[in-house]
């Protein structure tokens, strides 16, 4: 179980804006794995999993995930966190592209990972997309 938690911490580290390593990020996933952005109702599989890390780093080059709490059980890791960053690039959403606003975000999130044989087989991201939209659209 400790190894599962370390795997997830390493996965998050690979997705940080300042140390982004998309190839390493993808290497944590099993061949048939998927990532589901639950609020957006979008699922990524195969090579598209790279988009999960790269699109956030493009929109928020300084993106950082602060981990608050972790819960580990047999093959499952749950993480409560905040996604933080400054909106300096295009943010691709299911409804279109949001051009850079220069605003900062601090978005509550809960991620659920299922792990088999040392690889992530599923990653469900429950982010507070409505809070991010409010933060990006607030007046200066």
UniProtKB/TrEMBL annotation:
Top-level lineage group: Bacteria
Matching InterPro entries: Cyclase_SnoaL-like, NTF2-like_dom_sf
Gene3D superfamilies referenced in this protein's UniProt entry, alphabetically: 3.10.450.50
Xref: Pfam families: SnoaL
Coiled coil: none
Any one GO biological process: polyketide metabolic process
Protein name: Ketosteroid isomerase
